[in-house]
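FORM 7B: Structural annotation worksheet

SECTION A. Query
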Amino acid sequence: MNRTIESLLRFVNLTTAGLLAGSLGFGEAALVPGWKEELPRVDSRMNPTIAGYFNAIGPVALGTAITLAVAAPRGVGVPASRRVLDSASALGLAGVLAATVMVTVPINKQLDEQPAADYPSERTTLVKNWSRAHAVRTTLGIGAFVCAVAASNLHRHAK
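SECTION B. Predicted structure
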């Protein structure tokens, strides 16, 4: 992989991983497929074309992280820890997607099917589980972004 392609991939990875980490840390809408099912009260005035791009942010971040972990140059002048950080970023982003698709979206669907209650019930347990899963995926997303930033900075300073 030449330096131009690697630089472009790192830019796309940092941008998308940062957007994903920000969406997880500052709100309840993870910018991954299924985010609309998690928040049925999303503003319906949003342009459907733009909403489709939001679905692509998580997979693009994961795809670029995997590409960098597998295909980034190795050898003289390239720190080995960069590949480790790229791999950690890819694993973190895969965890975000997995937690969203396999945990938070199904819990949200169960919550939507249950009637509102004024007393503790199974709903309370589901809400706690959703909160825990959201905390885990937020941590994974922010960690993946930090690893991507660190990997980019290692490359820049190593000569």
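SECTION C. Observations
The mean pLDDT is 78. The chain has one domain: 3-157.

SECTION D. Sign-off
Analyst initials: ____
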